[in-house]
Amino acid sequence: RSYGEDLIIVGEPQMPSGINSAGYANYLKTQDVAGTVAFPKVSEDTKSRVSFRESVAIRIYERIYSIKKSFESAITKSLPEPNSSFIGGILLGSRQSIPDDLKNDFNKTSTTHILAISGYNIAIVSTYLMTLLVVFIRRRWAFWFSVLGIVIFTILTGASASVVRAAIMGILLSFANGYGRLYDQKISISLAALIMILLNPFVLTLDIGFQFSFLSVLGIAYLYPILKEIFVKIKISETIKDTLLMTLSAQIYVLPLAMYYFNNFPLVSLPVNVLILPLVPFAMALGFFVGIFGMILPILGKVLGLFAWALTSYQIWIVKFFASLKYSNLTIIPNLWAIIGIYLIIVGLTIWGTRSMNVQKDV
């Protein structure tokens, strides 16, 4: 079945049952779904009628998803597995074709976020679009085309909670760049959270992706400046230092909740992220060009695919190597009160560190 078809589905809706059923049921609530139907009878609805506005929306979405399908097909033809699935994950959040053993390795090393579209990916897309467009058109027009690109990118990736949050912040960042305004990450994340909760209150308590996404950004917004001030005298590459400290900031804020949900404590998360994250923008750029040129001229897509294969093979090898280590992660089963206590300590230390940093600046 393809997008845009009118179908009649006959069956008895039921709430999911079995392993992890509670988590899946909560996810369905965030999507305004009351239940699922197993093995329904499906037939085409030849009598369905939609309004003009709905028909236009359907045609637009149908065209967008058609382009996405051709784009993914071009990547698949230009790269072997699991490299093509890895590119699909970091570009479009498509993880269905990634082998289960590789998914487990990403889970063990706490690098699954690389395969899920997040603020990091949106920021890369926004930066690439603005950098490219300002060469040809005025900055303000470049902003509007950049916004359109972010909206289309959000639709292509399925518009999950983390993607929508990242898209809102990306649009605000593009607005600041396009109109010469100051960009405040803390205000942006607060506005993004408010908009999403007003549109769907369930995401606040039931959507794990929403919780992880905002906690990671909060860690970068509040803890990263403190850590950067502490390690200012460390003489290493600024790129490596920033990647290390941003990853550490996000991990500190997300890790307690991740332990609560998944009972997993990854010991190798920090080094793996440092070795992989700086190369993600290059892998995304290569993957994008492989898909675009693969749609136009398949042989050119395969040539570019060699470079994408080399880069993604390194990233995949790093994940597999660290996941294979005997003590790559530990199993921990904390209770809710322990998690609350940990977050109180983290928030308290963040507030203390921020105040100390401000006092030093005033002096």
Any chance you could write out the topology, listing elements then pairs?
Layout: E1 7-10, H1 21-30, E2 41-44, H2 52-78, H3 83-92, H4 100-108, H5 119-133, H6 139-156, H7 161-179, H8 185-199, H9 202-206, H10 208-230, H11 238-262, E3 264-266, H12 269-276, H13 280-296, H14 298-324, E4 329-331, H15 336-362
Antiparallel strand pairs: 1-2, 3-4
Structural descriptors:
15 helices, 363 residues, globular, 4% strand, two-stranded antiparallel ribbon
Task: Describe the fold and architecture.
The chain has 15 helices and 4 strands. It has a two-stranded antiparallel ribbon. The model has no long low-confidence stretch (mean pLDDT 78). The protein has 363 residues and is mainly alpha-helical. The longest helix is centred in the N-terminal third of the chain and has 27 residues.
The portion of residues forming beta strands comes to under 5%
Structural class: mainly alpha
Q: Compute the gyration radius: what is it? A: 22 Å
Q: What helical percentage do the residues reach?
A: over 70%
Query: Which residues form runs of ≥5 with pLDDT under 50?
Result: none
- What is the averaged pLDDT score? 78
N-to-C CA distance = 66 Å
The strand line-up of the biggest sheet is 1-2
Q: What order do the helices and strands follow?
A: EHEHHHHHHHHHHEHHHEH
Q: Tell me about the biggest sheet?
A: 2 strands, antiparallel
Number of helices: 15
The total of beta strands comes to 4
Molecular shape: globular
